[in-house]
Design goal:
Number of strands: 8
Structural class: alpha/beta
Radius of gyration: 23 Å
Helix content: 40-55%
Length: about 240
């Protein structure tokens, strides 16, 4: 039976590629593709829990949270299965990050711009392009109320249907994330060194090298445990002998 690799959007795989220490440049390049803004500095936190004091409120977990240029919060959520509640969930995640950033005693004007990026393995909107952005606007003249709220919905099936190739940096990253066209994936790795690095990380995480590393660590843990038991047993015997004397 064929040993199929887990998808890049697998929770563990995605976090390891994009939020592991040392992979900041990979996440930075991906975010430049999504947001189309210059990013000079990025600080990554691998996972953040949004907790409310009241017991009846739910616990939400974000896949990746990052601070850009010291003034913008970005949280990234990957959703593989359609649970038909994601609009509400995406608002919940966004509001949690926005609310928790304001420290006691700070003025409301000190809240930072907060961006939610949602990568979905299904179509959340029937119409429109694969990458859509929701913002807070007035009905009058469609004017923006604030730029502090920004939520992105990136729909992988729509990207595949559109057959866009690799026209933009985000298109390049989508080719890598979707893994549906080997020729295009090879092409974008030639164009973008950060995608090549991400692919090397992916191959390691899903290949024999990782399996050997895990086997070594398991064996080491067992030996360390057995050694500790042996030492503790010897110490206990010595203590009993001292007590008998």
């Amino acid at each position: 039976m064929e040993n199929k690799k887990p998808a890049i959007t697998n929770d563990y795989i995605f976090k390891q590629i994009f939020s592991k220490r040392g992979n900041e440049s990979i996440l930075k390049d991906f975010l430049i593709g999504v947001l189309e803004i210059p990013i000079e500095k990025i600080k990554v936190q691998s996972e953040v829990s949004l907790e409310k004091e009241l017991e009846e409120n739910k616990l939400g977990k974000l896949d990746i949270l990052a601070i850009l240029n010291d003034n913008t919060i970005v949280n990234i959520e990957v959703q593989v299965e359609n649970q038909y509640n994601f609009i509400d969930r995406s608002l919940y995640y966004w509001s949690g990050s926005y609310y928790n950033d304001l420290k006691a005693g700070e003025d409301y004007t000190e809240t930072r711009k907060t961006i939610g990026i949602n990568i979905l393995n299904y179509e959340i909107f029937k119409e429109g392009p694969y990458h859509e952005i929701a913002r807070l606007k007035r009905e009058y003249n469609n004017k923006l109320v604030t730029d502090k709220l920004e939520i992105h919905y990136i729909q992988m099936p729509k990207f595949i249907k559109e057959k866009r190739g690799s026209k933009t940096k985000l298109d390049q990253w989508m080719q890598f994330l979707c893994q549906k066209n080997n020729k295009e994936v090879a092409l974008v790795m030639e164009k973008n060194n950060e995608i090549k690095k991400a692919n090397e990380e992916y191959e390691y995480l899903t290949g024999e090298a990782r399996d050997r590393r895990i086997a070594y660590l398991v064996d080491k843990t067992k030996k360390d445990y057995n050694t500790r038991l042996k030492v503790e047993k010897e110490i206990a015997i010595k203590e009993r002998k001292k007590g008998a004397d």
